[in-house]
Amino acid sequence: MSEQECAYYRSLYDVAMCINSSLEPATVLHAIAEQTAKALSAKACSIRLLDRQGHTLLSGTSYGLSKGYLRKGTVEVAKSRIDQETLTGKVVQIKDAGNDPRFQYPDAAREEGIASVMALPLTVEGRPIGVMRLYCDNIREFEPSEIHFATAIANLSAMAIENARMHQALRTDYELLTAYEYTMHE
To answer: Which band of pLDDT confidence, cut at 50, 70 and 90, is reported for residue 135?
Structure first.
């Protein structure tokens, strides 16, 4: 086993432990983004989630991106061909984000020092819920082993997000039921 493969397994283990230790989505997603970026020697990683209408990708978390870049504007699925492709279930690579028409904000990418991007779908039971992106400050193509690793992390991320959502829904239902019971017995 190569040193790189060992690093992938350690990162995968760390992500799984984080997912298992917290139902707090912000904590889990940030740890996932950080571990993934570091494991793949990427500049940054972001996780964006689809809004209820499926028109906009909302910021879930990021690691390694400036506040200015994160405020560049709304990521609209209709205007972002990379996200349109990714949300169909494909892993998409862009070698030069500053000059690729599929990228919605190429000027912001150049200013941020982003060269290459890999976007991975976050899906639950075949339904897209968001996108994970890895950003590199150099022109590169990701190796098949890197794509497999990132896909595993994206799949774990989607499960963690769905579990956190279900936990939140159960907590809300429980609180409503408790409040109802309390008012019934007064």
So the answer is: very high
- The model's pTM is 0.82
Report whether pLDDT(64) > 90. Answer: yes
Please name which of 91, 51, 90, 52 lies closest in space to residue 74, comparing C-alpha atoms. 51
Alpha helices in the chain (DSSP H): 3-21, 25-39, 67-70, 81-86, 106-112, 144-184
**Do 180 and 43 form a contact (C-beta atoms < 8 A)?**
no
List Cα–Cα distances, 182 to 34, 92, 166, 172, 179, in angstroms. Answer: 43, 52, 24, 15, 5
Residue 172: which region, alpha, beta or left (left: phi > 0; alpha: psi -120 to 50)? alpha
| Per-residue confidence (pLDDT) for residue 162, from 0 to 100 | 80
Residue bearing the bigger pLDDT, 60 or 87:
87
User: Does the pLDDT value for residue 122 go beyond 90?
Assistant: yes
Q: Which residues of 126-162 are buried (b: 16+ CB within 10 A; e: fewer)?
A: eebbbbbbbbbeeeeebeeebbebbebbbbbbbebbb
